[in-house]
Design a protein that fits this description.
This is Ribokinase. One of its GO terms (molecular function) is metal ion binding. The chain is an alpha/beta fold. The protein folds into 3 domains: about 180 residues, no CATH class; about 300 residues, Ribokinase (UDP-N-acetylmuramoyl-L-alanine:D-glutamate ligase, 3-Layer(aba) Sandwich), CATH 3.40.1190.20; about 140 residues, Ubiquitin Conjugating Enzyme (Roll), CATH 3.10.110.10. The chain is built from 17 helices and 27 strands. The strands form 8 sheets. The protein has a 9-stranded mixed beta sheet with strand order 14-12-9-18-19-20-21-22-23, sandwiched between helices. A 4-stranded mixed beta sheet has the order 11-10-16-17. It has a 4-stranded antiparallel beta sheet with strand order 24-25-26-27. Strand 22 and strand 23 form a beta hairpin. Helix 4 crosses helix 11 and helix 16 packs across helix 17. The longest helix has 15 residues. The chain is globular, with a radius of gyration of 29 Å.
Length: about 650
């Protein structure tokens, strides 16, 4: 026995033991060559079956020059035939699965939890299959240490994608009988494959590709800013990984779909970013580029004890896509069943990806979140599902006012669909649920599930990632919504997301900047203003502002809500009035036209600064920079009348 460098087996630390599932490959490939025999069978549909490999054995057949034996599966090569006879043992297809394997697994379950020690793993060498170019014989990579009954998932394009270019249209997945310590495994996907095995279904061929952004926000706690030429030691640091592409990939993986992420990395935080994805069961495609001369998309935030900070921001690698997609990228896209895109990578990349995916028969889902962009008819002809929220839908239509009812949302969606008839529209409506307008005109409504809201940051990413995951699993539209919910009525993907978001409401997980600002607001309140964080979400504040004296809002009490997004202070707070107010710079939805909440925001500003600016805006309305155009016109044409209306609204509503 050889002591494993990672210690004895512990089922809670990255191992998962289920029935083994293996896709098969054409038997012609395991013959002498890739000549006429392959061409003869190239038009036949490949059958896939679930084939259990029930044991592994130590062997010294493959000498390595090392002092420990290598472990390999007993059955090294699995082939595919067109034979559907259920009695053909290892070569059966759908109708005849290995019934005895389930019995074996049940009997072996206790043995699988033993503390049997295994030789060290050679992480630099593992690969599910190896192709010998001369005779196209696919062999198992013999020197992976294995453990009885264990499974490990690979995208079989990694790491030897170029070796398989002449195989043709074969399944893209291998679930390999092997053993690796603490390797992230998509548990939800594994459970789905087990369910299909027990129901005698084909393996689920659902592959989702997320092509998008990934960011690293680096927080450094420093006593002060360093002087020129000075080296200053930080007293603390924190790195948070985000980006819409990464968020949605993680959500998709947690929804039970084998998900691959394609993006651009800098060589600085690539390990941290990839660990973040892999720990959620997301595969990182080998065609992702790690740029040696470009940093990752990130923000470096210097936090000082006073609560002040200085920030340096760069889009970095997210903007460093090649001008043309490489052949490996195109191969990945063409092998997808669903491709999910966002607006945080260059638009030309989205166009090329969507075109390649559409030509290959994949479903293309486009999330409008991120950079504000005009609708591109050339791009939209390749998109199947466009996913805006209500604000983004309003922006697409250049609507001057927000939607106040479901009927208005449906009418707006139908008018947009009239311009692009091939589109289905998935509209997220926050607490009002979601709405799907199919390209055939059918309307599907989904109410929001009851839950305690911790933080809405990333909720849209989570929802769209889970939606794309269910599309990849070939679920119906109705089932796509319903299957978000598990036995206890809570969506499994959202339950995972909630665990992540809960950290935001815990003071120990809040950035020091937010903690200090909150403490100061409570200890030294701004005259005429109170701001109190909610107990269950410390990023969400209930704000009350007293109407300033000598203004039309005098004697009024105005309620507002203020929310600090995950990237605060890199991004401004989200603030709106809850109390109705007649003001040229505040619209019917309570949104505020204030430059420091938009392009004039600086990380040096604080919550206190924002609240004081809003208070000043009540004292001095500015009709020359309006948000409520009708109020501004009234103000300009008849200021005394506008002031009387403002005072009347204050009396009635505040």
């Amino acid at each position: 026995l050889y002591k494993h460098p990672f210690g004895p087996f512990n089922p809670r630390e990255g191992y998962i033991y289920i029935n083994r599932v293996c896709y098969r490959i054409p038997d012609s490939i395991s013959a002498a060559g890739v000549g006429t025999e392959v061409k003869k069978k190239s038009k036949k549909q490949l059958q896939r079956s679930l084939t259990p490999h029930v044991d592994c054995c130590p062997t010294n057949l493959y000498e390595t020059g090392k002092e420990f034996p290598r472990w390999r599966p007993i059955q090294c090569i699995t082939v595919l035939t067109s034979n559907l006879d259920a009695s053909t043992g290892g070569f059966e297809a759908v109708r005849g699965f290995h019934k005895e394997f389930q019995e074996y697994f049940n009997q072996a379950a206790n043995r699988l939890e033993s503390d049997t020690l295994r030789p060290p793993v050679c992480l630099g060498d593992f690969s599910p299959l190896r192709m010998q170019e001369d005779n196209a014989l696919i062999q198992r990579f013999e020197h992976i240490p294995c453990k009885q009954g264990s499974v490990i998932f690979f995208d079989w394009r990694i790491p030897h994608a170029n070796s398989y270019r002449h195989i043709g249209n074969i399944p893209r997945e291998v679930i390999y009988t092997g053993f690796l310590p603490r390797v992230p495994i998509n548990e939800a996907y594994a459970k789905e494959q087990l369910r299909r095995y027990e129901a005698r279904l084909l393996p689920a061929d659902h592959w989702q590709k997320n092509i998008g952004s990934i960011n690293a926000d680096i927080f450094l706690d420093v006593p002060r800013l360093p002087l020129a030429g000075e080296t200053l030691a930080a007293t603390g640091s924190q790195c948070l990984i985000g980006g819409k592409g990464a968020n949605q990939a993680v959500a998709s993986a947690n929804a039970g779909t084998q998900t691959t992420f394609l993006g651009q990395f800098g060589d600085d935080y690539v390990a941290r970013m990839q660990q973040h994805l892999q720990s959620a069961g997301v595969l990182i495609d080998s065609s992702c580029t790690v740029h040696k001369d470009v940093v990752s998309g990130q923000a470096t935030i210097f936090r000082m004890p006073s609560g002040e900070n200085a920030i340096v921001i760069t889009p970095g690698a997210n903007a460093a896509w090649p001008s043309s997609l490489t052949p490996p990228m195109l191969d990945l896209i063409k092998q997808s069943s669903v491709v999910l895109l966002q607006c945080e990578i260059p638009h030309y990349v989205n166009v090329k990806v969507a075109k390649a995916a559409k030509q290959a028969g994949a479903i293309v889902v486009w999330d409008l979140g991120g950079e504000e962009r005009q609708l591109d008819p050339e791009f939209l002809q390749y998109v199947d599902f466009m996913c805006p929220n209500e604000t983004e839908l309003q922006r697409c239509l250049n609507s001057p006012s927000s939607f106040e009812s479901l009927d208005q949302v449906i009418t707006a969606a139908q008018s947009l669909q009239a311009r692009f008839p091939s589109l289905s529209l998935l509209i997220s409506r926050g607490a009002n649920g979601s709405l799907l307008l199919g390209k055939d005109g059918t309307i599907t409504r989904q109410a929001a599930f009851p839950a305690t809201v911790i933080d809405t940051t990333g909720a849209g990413d989570c929802f769209r990632g889970a939606f794309a995951a269910k599309l990849a699993q070939k679920a119906s539209i109705t089932d796509t919504f319903n299957t978000f919910f598990f036995e206890d009525g809570v969506p499994d993907t959202w339950r995972w997301w909630g665990r992540s978001l809960h950290k935001m409401s815990n003071p120990t997980h809040l950035p020091r900047r937010i903690v200090k600002e909150t403490q100061r607001l409570l200890a030294e309140p701004v005259p005429g203003i109170s701001a109190t964080p909610y107990e269950d979400n410390l990023r969400y504040f209930q704000v009350v502002i007293a109407g300033p004296q000598s203004s039309p809002y005098e004697n009024g009490i105005f309620k507002l809500e203020l929310f600090l997004p995950a990237d605060y202070p890199m991004a401004p707070p989200k603030v709106r009035f809850l109390t109705r107010i007649y003001h040229p710079n505040i619209d019917k939805l309570g949104r505020i036209c204030l430059d420091i909440l938009k392009d004039k925001w600086s990380p040096a500003l604080q919550i206190r600064t924002v609240l004081l600016s809003i208070q000043a805006l009540l004292s001095a309305p500015n009709p020359d920079d309006p948000l409520a155009n009708d109020v501004a016109d009234h103000w300009k044409s008849d200021e005394p009348g506008a002031l009387r209306t403002a005072m009347e609204w204050t009396r009635r509503f505040a």
